[in-house]
Amino acid sequence: MTDPTPSIDRVTATPAAVALIEKLRAVHGPLMFHQSGGCCDGSAPMCYPAGEFKIGQRDVLLGTIAGCEFYIGGHQYELWKHTQLIIDAVPGRGSGFSLEAPEGLRFLTRSRVLGDDEQAALACTPPRVGPG
User: Fold this and answer.
1) Does domain 12-125 have CATH number 3.90.550.10?
2) What confidence tens digit (pLDDT) does each residue in 80-89 have?
3) How far is 17 from 46, CA to CA, in rounded Å?
4) Is there a contact between 130 and 55 (Cβ–Cβ < 8 Å)?
5) Which of 10, 35, 89, 90 has the smallest number of Cβ neighbours within 10 A?
């Protein structure tokens, strides 16, 4: 018997983002992402070598994209929990702290508002908070 509840990802990646992730992984090894919460870089997905960004007690693991863990700050998660984040790669210069900065591309977060059924399904499986 199949599960009638559809699988909903809290974060996904476009083919362009996956291609950039694969290129970066070939150079830097395992990667991770953290959705920055503002300040100098606005709100942007930041790509780091896995383990190079300290995950805080309130950071939320949204899921994985192209095999990379993707985190967001707890306060920002509360503001965006009704959306699915879609990570894209577009022409431009990324943040100096994010690995894609010299590539001529930058990661960009787009979002899609989740339907009521999707939100209800996700409410049954809250995301992990804090370091693994």
Assistant:
1) no
2) 999 999 999 9
3) 12
4) yes
5) 90
Torsion sign (Cα): 89, 93, 94, 100: positive
Say if residues 48 and 54 touch (Cβ distance below 8 Å): no
d(C-alpha 113, C-alpha 130), whole Å: 25
> pTM of the entire structure?
0.88
* Chain centroid, CA 46 distance in Å: 8
Assigned token pair, 41 = 């870089």
Q: Give dist(CA 37, CA 50) in Å, integer.
A: 19
Over the chain (132 residues), the average pLDDT of each successive run of 10 is 65 98 97 80 84 92 96 93 96 85 92 94 87 70
Q: For residues 47 and 125, what is the distance between their CA atoms, to the nearest angstrom? A: 26
